[in-house]
Amino acid sequence: MKKWILATSVALALLGCANEASTPALPQGVSFVEAVAVKDGQVGIPYKKYRLANGLTLILHRDDSDPLVHVDVTYHVGSAREVAGRSGFAHLFEHMMFQGSEHVADEQHFKLVTEAGGNLNGTTNNDRTNYFETVPSNQLEKMLWLESDRMGFLLPALTEKKFEVQRETVKNERAQRIDNRPYGRMDEKFNQALYPLGHPYSWPVIGWPADLDRATVDDVKQFFQRWYGPNNATLTIGGDFDEAQALAWVDKYFAAIPSGPAVSAAPKSLVTLDKTRYLSMEDKVHLPLIRIGFPTVYARHADEPALDLLANIIGGGKTSLIYKDLVKDGYAVQAGVSHPCQELACLFSVYALANPAKGGKLAEIEARIRDAIAEFEQRGVTDADLEKAKVQFEADTIFGLQSVSGKVSTLALNQTLAGNPNMIAADLARYASVTREDVMRVFEQYIKDKPSVVMSVVPEGMGQLVAHKDNFRVQLLPAVADAATPTRVATAIPEDVDRNKVPAPGAAPLLKVPTLWQDKLANGIEVLGTRSRETPTVELVIYLDGGHRLEPVAKAGLAGLTAAMLNESSRSHSAEELAQALEMLGSHLSFGASDYQSYIKVSSLSEHLDQTLALLNEHLFTPAFDAADFERLKQQQLQSLEHLKSDANYLASQAFSRLLYGEQSPLGVSSSGTLASVASLTLEDVKAFYAKQYTAGNSQMVVVADLPQAEVMSKLAGFAAWQGKASPLPPLAPLPEPQAATIYLVDKPGAAQSVINIGKLALPYDATGEYFRAYLMNYPLGGAFNSRINLNLREDKGYSYGARSDFSGGSELGQFSASSSVRSDVTAPALSELIKELKRYHDSGLTDSELAFMRSSISQGQALDYETPYQKAGFMRMIQRYHLPADFTARQAKIIAGISKDELNRLANNLLDINQMVIVVVGDRASIEAELSALGYPVKLLTL
Q1: What is the 3-state secondary structure (H, E, C) of 863-919?
Q2: What pLDDT was estimated at residue 531?
Q3: Residue 485 and residue 83: Cα distance in Å, rounded?
Q4: Which residue among 325, 664, 886, 927 is least packed, with the fewest CB closer than 10 Å?
């Protein structure tokens, strides 16, 4: 067994004078708690932890590799703190926290962060709610001002109108993510059966619709007063900042906020079932789905690691028993096992999407799942099982340290749920110590012959496919009177802090564009690379020009199917043996295809790169092209296409592409293909496309590694023997001429939402020409959260969870589109508002303030563009694919700074004529067609 690398936590008493010397002088009321140091070669996150007198926990992590900071405020309150009949409050309150506070105007929060070049969001789950911003490092004070104002001074700005708009927004979010999504309602029904009546996890995070309708402004205020005190929060700052200055700002803005009510940990007790509970539902889906869940322990319980490893062995990937018994044999299109853990409960979860071609009967699938579990008992646990799972855990931990946001999130979550940010070392040790006996013990204790919840989701009208007749009936508790008990009142503003003044940014940070190197293999393959020393990892991407664009339209889906075949067996080893070898290295390897390229992605720890590349070579150069693999993957692709027919966003995308590019163009047909095109594919087609696509002449490489150029090139030398010329793309079919200013309606009966897409053909990609200028022009219209169309449809009207517009371009063609998913009952008004915004922008263009906002946001946002290895790889691929000069970002900066409002408005007038655009709406025809017709545009029914 390999030696596990552990981080070192050093408490104050152990650090002595050396640590005291490195700790800045503390403002009054700020106490130093601990510091964690990580030595070279160890895995961990260095940080310092402080606590304010009001109970706020502060964690500082310095990382000056990029000129940015990530600020996270995590409150230890999620849906589990709600009460019966008052579900959805934690998530609804997350929305309210972005609506301005006493000293931050309506919609100013988003504007200030975006204008500063940053991004922001908030998330809510059962256990916690967090709010975060990533911004250039000179904007830190502004972020602390914003976060402190909504922590301490939200209520004076909370109005009935804001509340009603955000309630509608949450309803739209629910419609988009749950009601209008295949299998969307499965989780909430499953949890009702799994957890006891009244358990905090028995209701959905987003809330029941009736509970959202029942909510009032006073409920929201009570919820804030109960849970949003600084003593229930952790503020974590990571990135490039001065510690002493950060401490001073935190003290300045947060210290005066009074503590809230005391918060105690929620009680933890193991969930048990008296018998196996069966339930089912019919949905607008194609693939029958079965889910089986066994309640186990809770997060950080001593048995959690062994249960995680058990899930990996039974159902984690191609080497698992579930894969072998269900997917490999074609009975399931997908299947897997996981063991997700939350603060109060964990779940051993098995799922399978049944293959209708094999009958799709979920009773048979359940029997096969239980047979696989029984097979595990007979097979037992091997040393290889344990090492594979442990290596994967360590590798995933290391890959998770590649971004500041990832490290900050880890620190914040560990502090919130465990009271200790420094859990990486402990977690590595926990998993390293698991034995075969531990895994078998938890199997016996929590899984073998234990009651479970078994849920079937079947297509409408096909109840005969369910695994078993329902034997469980959902019950609900009566609603309580109050969402929470109010106990806190906001303090007066200290005289020495002028919260009405937006803090000015510091000096602009120096932009750190990656230092690139270029090289070639002996066969002429171009390699573009950069060295990144943040983690001991390598990210390699091999791009092959062609992809979907290279295949005949009649054989659409061939590029993707060929890539899938290359993920399978070689002439020397089975797919399972190859997967096992990768897992033992903690490496990831995948083949894929998109519209204009096929690609190979490799992620590896640097120490395992040679072995990983050897496995890549075997996959790439000696594929088995096994007939059984082909038939299985082809069937999976066909079933996936049938499944996509129930996805409104997919239907809208396909309709839009068909209208713009035509059915005879690969750009007008999904890269996944059609039922007819995929059904026609043969194994010989795959072999022929492989020979045409996977050649050295089509290939270019991008690599981000902690290794020097010479060492990387030495390791890539094995690809120098790769041969084959570049394959020219076939000519595109003539473009169609769809009837513009026409609504094309795709019927999706019973849809809770309508998907709207408006657009036209536009410009191919260029980095510094008209396409780039069109991107700048569109930014205030629909390219940012506080753009015109999003503020209109989401924030002002409450019609949608989000709306956007953009120009997207490739090497040959491009398009403009404006899109949104809206409530079905407001389809026509929402479409009318979108059209009004487009017309207004076409006629009048952007304002001076919008021009200033665009310049500030995009230019400063470049500081965030190169942080992670894949961001660096994407940046390099753009240079490589479009033959861009090394200084193209500097040229873009000059354009941003110098472009005039008149030029941008001319572009808007030239490119945004609604009378040249097609309008696609996917929704319930019966309920929306009449109102759409009343808008004055011709309405044509489009069948896909």
Answers
A1: HHCCCCHHHHHHHHHHHHHCCCCCCHHHHHHHHHHHCCHHHHHHHHHHHCCHHHCEE
A2: 95
A3: 11
A4: 886
User: Which letter does DSSP use for residue 791 in this model?
Assistant: I
Q: Read out DSSP for 338-367?
A: E--B-SS-BEEEEEEEE-GGGT--HHHHHH
Residue 373 has pLDDT above 60, yes or no: yes
The label of the residue with tokens 């001002």 reads 145
pLDDT at 3 over 60: no
Distance, in Å, from the CA atom of 686 to the CA atom of 561, rounded to the nearest integer, reads: 7
Amino acid residing at 676: A
Q: Which residue has the tokens 């304010």?
A: 52
Q: Which tokens sit at 46?
A: 């260095």
Q: H/E element holding 759? A: strand 753-761
What pLDDT does residue 370 have?
Answer: 97
Q: Which of 26-35, 238-247, 857-866 has the lowest mean pLDDT?
A: 857-866
Single-letter amino acid code for the residue at 789: I
Q: Which residues lie below 8 Å from residue 399, measured CB to CB, with a gap of 6+?
A: 535, 537, 603
Q: Which tokens is 935 given? A: 């808008």
pLDDT of residue 791: 95
Altogether, the residues listed in the chain come to a count of 944
Query: What whole-number distance in Å separates Cα of residue 73 and Cα of residue 262?
Result: 18
Q: What is the mean pLDDT of residues 335-364?
A: 96
| 597 torsion bin: left (phi>0), alpha (psi -120 to 50), beta (else) | beta
CA atoms within 13 A on the CB side of 343: 23
* pLDDT, tens digit, 9 for 90 and up, residues 394-451: 899 988 889 999 999 999 999 999 999 999 988 999 999 999 999 999 999 999 999 9
| DSSP symbols for 108-143 | HHHHHHHHTT-EEEEEE-SS-EEEEEEEEGGGHHHH
Lookup result for tokens 């690139």: 516
Local confidence band at 11 (pLDDT 50, 70, 90 cut-offs): very low
For residue 866, the model assigns a pLDDT of 86
The token duo for 597 is 């390229």
Supply the DSSP string of 671-699, one letter for each residue.
TT--HHHHHT--HHHHHHHHHHHSSGGGE
Kindly report the CA angle at 294 between 292 and 299, in degrees rounded to 5? 125
